[in-house]
Amino acid sequence: RLIYTSNTHKNTHSTPIRLSFVDAPNEGTGNFSVDKEGSNSLGSRKLTSEVWTFFVQVVVNNVKKAKCKSCNKLLSATSNHGTSHLMKHAKKTCTMRHLEISKGLAKLGVKTELDESTTLELKEKYKEFNQEISRNKLVIIEIIHGYPLSIVDHFGFKDFVKSLNPLFKMISRNILRNDILKMHKDEKLSIKRLLEYNDSRIAVTTDMWTASNKKKGYMVVTSHFIDQNLVLRNRILR
C-alpha cells in the first residue's frame, strides 16, 4: 500500500515529499520509507558521501538501511557502521552492477570507469572473450555430434549462441567446413609425429558399426601403445 503525504504551507517554498510503503522487500514485514533529498524519518542530515550515488537510504522498522540501486540488497546505514562496507559492495560484491557496467563493452574483464575517482575491475569469472577459442569449440561439437553444417544458419541456434555471449560472430557453413578440414589435418599430423617418436610397439585394432540415423556401415582403425611415461594411449588412425 502506497501512502503519499506532503506538508502544505501558505508560502511558495517547496517541501520534502515522503513515500511510505508497507512490507519492505528483503526484510519481511515492517514499515519502509524513502525520503526525498536523502533525508529519512530518523533524521534530516543530508547525505554527502559519493557512495550514495549507488545506494538509496531507507528506513525499515525504524532502522536505517542502505538499499543498492542495482541488486536491491539492504545493508546497514547507521552512523556507527560508516560507509566503507557500502563502497566495497558497489565496487566488488554487487554482481548486478558489474553486469550493467560491462554491457556493451567490446571486451569483458577490462577496467571500467565507475566514476571520476573510482575504477572498477570486473571479477575473474568474467573472463576475456576470445572469438578463436569459441570458434574452435564450435568445430569440436560439430565433429563429435555430427551436426549438419547448416546449423550455423538456423535462427534458433544463432539466437541461443547470442544469449550465451553476444560478442561471438557466427561463421558461415563454408568457413565451418574449412575449419573442420583444417582441424583434421592438424590432428593427423600430430598423431603421425606422436607415433613416429614412440619407441614402444603399436597394436592396431579395427571396429565396425552401423550408424542408426543413416543406416550406413563404418569401420574405425585404432592404434594402441604405451608412451614414455608408461601410460596406455589410444589414437584413431582412420
Molecular structure report:
The chain has 238 residues and is α+β, with helices and mostly antiparallel strands. The chain has three domains: 2-93, no CATH class; 129-197, no CATH class; 199-238. The protein is built from five helices and eleven strands; from the N terminus they run ββββββααββαααβββ. The strands form three sheets. A six-stranded antiparallel beta sheet has the order 1-2-3-4-5-6, covered by helices on one side. Strand 10 (216-226) and strand 11 (232-236) form a beta hairpin. Helix 3 packs across helix 5 (173-196). It is elongated, with a radius of gyration of 31 Å. The N and C termini lie far apart (72 Å). The relative contact order is 0.06. Residues 1-6, 8-15, 17-30, 35-44, 109-120 and 122-126 have low confidence and may be disordered.
Question: What is this structure, in a nutshell?
Answer:
With 238 residues, this protein is α+β, with helices and mostly antiparallel strands. The protein has five helices and eleven strands.
